[in-house]
Amino acid sequence: MENKSNNSIKILSEIISYFAIGSLLFLAIGLKDIDNYLDWLTFSAALVFTGLLFGITMYFVLSYFNTNIKTYKNSKGIGILFPLTFAFTLLFFGLGSIVNESLIQKTECKEYTIQNMGESGSRQRAYYIFINNGEKIERLSFGKAFNNKHKIEENISLCIITGRIGFKYYKIQGKN
Fold this sequence. Notes:
The protein is of the alpha+beta class.
């Protein structure tokens, strides 16, 4: 019986490891356009913390059904807890971004003046504009084509969109 339990834990460990590697895709999805969130740090922290809690909860649920999970280590010395929490953290980060941006609660559009423009990086350049939203200067990224088309002191129409989860982000007016 012990051997069958260890085999099932080995298989579960492999599945969770592949799941953790696959969850990197959700990290990329979550990071896409994160510059355009009004409070990207709170957005990120909330989703990462939720994923971490869910991963830990899943670990304890699995441990309840098979107590050997707590002591199991694979050939590289990694247990089940790390890849499980890693996977759910990235999964929740990406899915949270998808849900927030696909289900719009409220949209407020108005004109903003471009205060400054810039680019960063050397190999993979990122193009930024800076606007004053009334409270603070925001750094937004809409890509190279947008920066080439607009100039400093030019007015642009942007919408502040409140997503389903309640986090706000900027989007160019009329662009889906």
